[in-house]
Design goal:
- There is one protein chain.
- The strands form two sheets. A four-stranded antiparallel beta sheet has the order 1-2-6-5, with no helix packed on it. A three-stranded antiparallel beta sheet has the order 3-4-7.
- It is built from 13 helices and seven strands.
- The protein is globular.
- The protein is an alpha+beta fold.
């Protein structure tokens, strides 16, 4: 597809309704295996086939965080992270496209009215997919929003230009972050085919190629006022919005690491031993065994920290306050440091231990490193260590925003 292609979506497929954490994890495993054959093709063609995206929706996995009183499974945060990681281990672009969808479901839970929750949760349970139009290229920093919202009777009018709009080509709804006349951030839910909203397929990164994370144009987009959410309240008061967003992000990196380590095992088993090793199989080379063993240890640690991070977010969810939200943010930050480092390390070791033949184009194993390198740039993990250190040494609570 060219940079000017406008991508359209099909109507939401009929979706399964998942009832439990155990079911969610099992469905994720089955779905991931069903799409393994498409992984290299998705990376090469920079797009996810429509039938794969629809099959993903139909699993019901996109609705697993809907509250139980609205008909959802309301799974634990650890289960959500595992579901994302399981899909990302096979194809991380596919694992990333619902990441912001889950964050948007949480936005609805945190700041929606009863009527908004009923309407939008119902859409998700029926198979609707949300993408995002949050971030913008340029500006002083990532938090500066130039997109503007003006109230006009019982509608709002939105004008601006977004980038990093992950999943926009595959979505049925694209919520837009804008600033109103009072300088307050609002979240405006717009249908994908609304007049004044254009998805431009111009995502050109060398990794996470099929996430459709490019431009969304907003040119006099008109939306009913009852589709507007007070986004600013989520960070004025303590909520789990920040650690929740970060947990869903780090789960993708955990998945990339899992996938790269699995491929490393296969590559080593078929590789030739080094001439000086004195063994007849690469899988018996002690230097290789040390590297593979360390990857396994680090993966176990990353998975354990991810579970603990999920538990911390769950602990804060029922009655969020400054202390338990800070504890959740710190737990998630610890996990994110390790998953970032492991995704990069594992994808590098895959090529090293697999040898020269692992670089052959038919294998497409370079996609693990490319995906890891691109996705781990989401926010600078070096800042996580600073924030954790300040918290444990000085008792400083981390800032409340989407990046901690």
């Amino acid at each position: 597809m060219t940079a000017d292609t406008v991508v359209t979506t099909t109507a939401p497929p009929r979706a399964r309704v998942i009832a439990s954490d155990e079911e969610a994890r099992a469905v994720a495993r089955d779905f991931a295996e069903s799409v393994r054959e498409y992984a290299a093709q998705i990376d090469a063609e920079r797009r996810i086939p429509a039938e794969v995206v629809d099959a993903f929706s139909a699993t019901g996995l996109w609705a697993i965080t809907i509250p139980r009183d609205h008909g959802g499974a309301d799974v634990s945060q650890a289960t959500l992270a595992d579901v994302i990681a399981t899909v990302s281990a096979v194809e991380p672009s596919l694992g990333q496209i619902p990441q912001n969808h889950f964050c948007l479901v949480e936005d609805i839970r945190l700041s929606g009215t009863a009527e908004q929750k009923s309407f939008f949760f119902g859409l998700v349970l029926a198979g609707a997919r949300f993408a995002n139009a949050f971030s913008e290229a340029g500006g002083k920093n990532v938090a500066e929003i130039q997109t503007r919202l003006v109230t006009d009777g019982d509608e709002v009018v939105v004008t601006g230009r977004k980038f990093y709009s992950t999943g926009s080509a595959y979505a049925h709804w694209i919520p837009v972050l804008a600033v109103d006349e009072s300088g307050l951030e609002k979240l405006v839910f717009a249908e994908r085919d609304a007049d004044g909203l254009t998805v431009v397929d111009d995502w050109s990164a060398f990794g996470q190629r099929a996430t459709s994370s490019g431009t969304v144009l907003l040119e006099g987009l008109r939306v009913p006022a009852d589709r507007v959410f007070p986004m600013h309240t989520e960070y004025e008061n303590p909520t789990i919005a920040g650690p929740f967003a970060q947990l869903t992000t780090l789960a993708i990196d955990l998945g990339i690491a899992r996938g790269a380590i699995r491929e490393t095992h296969d590559a080593v088993r078929s590789a030739r031993p080094w001439i000086d090793s004195g063994v007849d199989s690469a899988s018996k080379d002690p230097l290789t065994l040390e590297r593979v063993g360390r990857l396994d240890i680090d993966l176990a640690a990353a998975e354990a920290l991810t579970e603990k991070a999920g538990e911390a977010v769950d602990a804060a969810k029922p009655a969020a306050d400054a202390q338990n939200v800070a504890a959740a943010s710190i737990a998630v930050a610890r996990a994110k440091v390790l998953t970032t480092e492991l995704a990069l390390e594992a994808s590098t070791r895959l090529l090293e231990l697999g040898g020269t033949r692992s670089t052959l184009g038919a294998k497409a194993l370079d996609r693990y490193w490319r995906n890891a390198r691109v996705h781990t740039l989401h926010d600078p993990v070096r800042w996580k260590s600073v924030i954790v250190g300040d918290y444990v040494l000085n008792g400083t609570l981390p800032a409340r925003h989407s990046w901690i």
